[in-house]
Specification:
By secondary structure, the chain is mainly β. Helix content is about 0%, strand content about 50%. Strands 2, 4, 5, 6, 9, 10 and 11 form a 7-stranded mixed β-sheet that branches. Strands 1-3-8-7 form a 4-stranded antiparallel β-sheet, with no helix packed on it.
């Protein structure tokens, strides 16, 4: 069973930075892709970016390109989301997710989810 635990959320001012972490266990269950999603109040869950667990290839949604960076530490079974130049529109609960599929950006293709961590960007 894969378990994901996010941490690192909080309150930050516009233009600030935060780094979220996702500690994973049970990744020998055939996980190929780790993704980050976010959900703002009264909005649908939105894809933020993903990274392949083996090769480290990343892909981002347009709204975060150049500001957010996903990385992973295989030895620690941890995935990171470095968020810079934060905007109020980035305010949301951020979720880490794991998928057995490759190259997927849709929530329904992710098999395991963390509990989420709140990120609030004040103006």
């Amino acid at each position: 069973q894969v378990q994901l635990v996010e941490s690192g959320g909080g309150l930050v001012q516009t233009g600030g930075s935060l780094r979220l972490s996702c500690a994973a266990s049970g990744l020998n269950f055939g996980i190929n892709t780790m993704g980050w999603f976010r959900q703002a109040p009264e909005k649908e869950r939105e894809f933020v970016g993903r990274i392949t667990w083996s090769g480290g290839t990343t892909f981002y949604t347009d709204s975060v390109k150049g500001r957010f960076t996903i990385s992973r530490n295989n030895a620690k079974n941890t995935v990171y989301l470095q968020m810079n130049s934060l905007k109020p529109a980035d305010t949301a609960v951020y979720y880490c997710a794991a998928s057995r599929s490759r190259g997927v950006s849709t929530a329904r293709f992710y098999d395991y989810w963390g509990q989420g961590t709140q990120v609030t960007v004040s103006s």
